[in-house]
TrEMBL record:
Residues 1-20 are annotated as: Disordered. Transmembrane segments: none annotated. This is PRC-barrel domain-containing protein. Residues 12-81 form the PRC-barrel domain. Gene3D superfamilies: PRC-barrel domain. InterPro entries: PRC-brl_dom, PRC_barrel-like_sf. It holds the Pfam family PRC.
Length: 86
């Protein structure tokens, strides 16, 4: 990825999808370079592992900080995140 898409507090509440179109959570907090996502409780272990969200595999339902570099795009109606290698 060449640049990090702009994200700010107006993006709080947007759903978060992976690049395959699976809804993985919702943005709960944006502050500077920090973005927190509340994982979708229906998120499968396979998708969680692909995203590098190992905390989900332990049954945690806490909000999770994501790296700005994992954000593929910020759209009007969603945020798209890539895998752990993004």
């Amino acid at each position: 990825m060449d640049s990090i898409p702009p994200i700010d507090t107006e993006d709080e509440g947007k759903p978060v999808y992976d690049t395959d179109g699976t809804r993985v959570g919702i943005v709960t907090h944006v502050a500077g370079t920090e973005v927190a996502v509340d994982p979708d409780p229906r998120l499968t272990d396979t998708v969680a592992a692909k995203l590098g969200w190992s905390f989900m595999l332990d049954g945690s339902d806490d909000s999770y900080p994501i790296s700005l570099t994992s954000i593929e795009s910020v759209e009007d109606d969603r945020i798209v995140v890539g895998g752990k290698g993004s």
